[in-house]
Amino acid sequence: MRRRLLLCLPLLAFLVLAGFLYRGLHRDPQVLPSALVGQPFPAFSLPGVLDEQLISRQDLLGRPALVNVWGTWCVACREEHPLLNRLKAQGVVIHGVNYKDDNASARRWLAEFHDPYRLDIRDDEGRLGLDLGVYGAPETFLIDAQGIVRYRHVGVVDQRVWDEELGPRYRALVAAP
């Protein structure tokens, strides 16, 4: 009996592994679970990109907003930047977290490509990014007026992502009493 169990063990291990792999085939790689959804945006106190004035979590409160994690070293960030500027022109509140970047480069980027951010948070060491669970840039978080994270998008925010994922959620938060 014991010998039969030992012979079946590799088959059982294979079946368990195959089940996990099969499940992984049907998951969207852009959807990464976030422990922060439904939780307050992390506390922080960091300087701004354009000046040395400290910005904190408290400064994000009062209105629903997108919090966009970006960097000048991020090729995909350049791709989404024009849409962020258009959204700003439409009245969408966007805060930026310049993640693990050179501040002089970030200032040049914002001067050249325009600044879509109401607040530009400078996260040189990546501590805020770590607290947010950021894998890289770009990543965008949707927060409500109380600073609760309501949604997380990993990757480029393009027109489709805005129209289908972020836009409807943002508008619902703005319309909420």
From TrEMBL:
NCBIfam families: dsbE. It is found in: Cell inner membrane. This is Cytochrome c biogenesis protein CcmG/thiol:disulfide interchange protein DsbE. Residues 35-177 form the Thioredoxin domain. SUPFAM superfamilies: Thioredoxin-like (SSF52833). GO terms for cellular component: outer membrane-bounded periplasmic space; plasma membrane. It comes from the Bacteria. The keyword Lyase does not apply. Keywords: Cytochrome c-type biogenesis, Disulfide bond, Redox-active center. It holds the Pfam family Redoxin. It is a single-pass membrane protein. GO terms for biological process: cytochrome complex assembly. PANTHER family: THIOL:DISULFIDE INTERCHANGE PROTEIN DSBE. Belongs to the thioredoxin family. DsbE subfamily. One of its GO terms (molecular function) is disulfide oxidoreductase activity. It comes from Pseudomonas oryzihabitans. InterPro entries: Periplasmic_diS_OxRdtase_DsbE, Redoxin, Thioredoxin-like_sf, Thioredoxin_CS, Thioredoxin_domain, Thioredoxin_ResA/DsbE_sf.
